[in-house]
Amino acid sequence: MEFLYKPWPWYVAGPIIGLSVPTLLLLGNKKLGVSATLRQICAACYPANIPFLHYDWKKDSWNLFFVAGILIGGFIGGTLFANPEPVALSKNTIDLLHQQGLTDLSGLLPSELFSWNTLFSLKGFLLMVVGGFMVGFGTRYARGCTSGHGILGLSALQWPSLLATASFFIGGILFSQFVLPYILAL
Amino acid sequence: MRNLKYLCVGIVFGLALTKGEAISWFRIQEMFHFQSFHMFGIFMTAVPVGAISLFLIKKLNLRTIDGENIATPKKTFHHGVIIGGLIFGFGWSLTGACPGPLYAQIGGGYLVTIITLISAVLGTWVYARIQPMLPE
């Protein structure tokens, strides 16, 4: 059971994530992708009269089972067998986050930023509500996310996926380095 | 019932994301500041494993368990790949979550991230609404 409490090194987690590509294909010709489920939820709950949301979402309901599994996997790994130690970040990152005003680096997310109390502050609103909105808007506009483009698309040597993945990283690097510090200082 | 197998794949996938700390806001900041190899290591092992598997599926002409042909996944280019990709990158930096971790963070006990997920669904809905006006 020890290995369930401990964090997994990248050379364990990475290959398991990569193996989901052939597993899904062999089980039923399914293509790894998570952001499509956000569209599925829209189509199921409130398609309004939007053409992009009018399609047979039930035909692709496999991916709703897949993300329900991800949530359960998160529960097993993050709640049931939570790592009691803080994430083993590099010293530079720890220094940087302290400098940016975070004192508590325990858990997987900083409780000083992600909590019901901070949700109603400007900082928390930007991090969770605006951030989440950008994730949903951006991934659908890009037609895929880190799994669909970054793992599956790159594995299949698709050049649009290389451009997409590069854009994800350029966006994230620029934002984390030049914008986020101002938000954390709010 | 035939969808239950995807639930099982999802559990393993979510467990690897969580135990690999790919759902951690801290790890995402560390990655975007190039301060550790950890997250890059995950990508640099996941992609070759996926690529070699796809190569083998093609080479050995493997079929699905129901005997169907497996076609190589294709992705097409349009402007959204870059513009949408950048917007997603901003959101990834803010939330510490790409869509997979959106679900895993909730399961991981950070219940407030339900709001992040709902907001992501809303973002997708707004995209769908204004899609005809955007360059594709």
- Alpha-beta content class of chain A: mainly alpha
The protein's oligomeric status is heterodimer
Report the total helices of chain B.
Answer: 6
- The portion of residues assigned to helices of chain B is 55-70%
The stretches of 5 or more residues of chain A where confidence is low (pLDDT under 50) are: none
Which radius of gyration of chain A do the C-alpha atoms yield?
Answer: 19 Å
Radius of gyration of chain B: 18 Å
N-end to C-end Cα span of chain B: 38 Å
Largest sheet of chain A: none
Summarize the biggest pleated sheet of chain B: none
Q: What overall geometry of chain B do the principal axes of the alpha carbons give?
A: globular
- Distance separating the two termini of chain A: 42 Å
Shape of chain A: globular
User: What is the N-to-C order of secondary-structure elements of chain A (H for helix, E for strand)?
Assistant: HHHHHHHHH
pLDDT averaged over residues of chain A: 97
Strand % of chain A is under 5%
Description:
The complex is a heterodimer of chains A (186) and B (136). With 186 residues, chain A is mainly alpha-helical. Chain A is built from nine helices and no strands. Chain A has helices at 2-5, 10-28, 36-45, 62-80, 91-99, 116-119, 122-141, 146-155, 159-184. The longest helix of chain A is centred in the C-terminal third of the chain and has 26 residues, at 159-184. The model of chain A has no long low-confidence stretch (mean pLDDT 97). Chain B is an all-alpha fold and 136 residues long. Chain B is built from six helices and no strands. Chain B has helices spanning 4-19, 25-32, 38-59, 80-95, 99-107, 113-130. In chain B, helix 1 (4-19) crosses helix 5 (99-107), helix 2 crosses helix 4 (80-95) and helix 5 runs antiparallel to helix 6 (113-130). At the A-B interface, helix 2, helix 3, helix 4, helix 5 and helix 7 of A face helix 1, helix 2, helix 3, helix 4 and helix 5 of B.
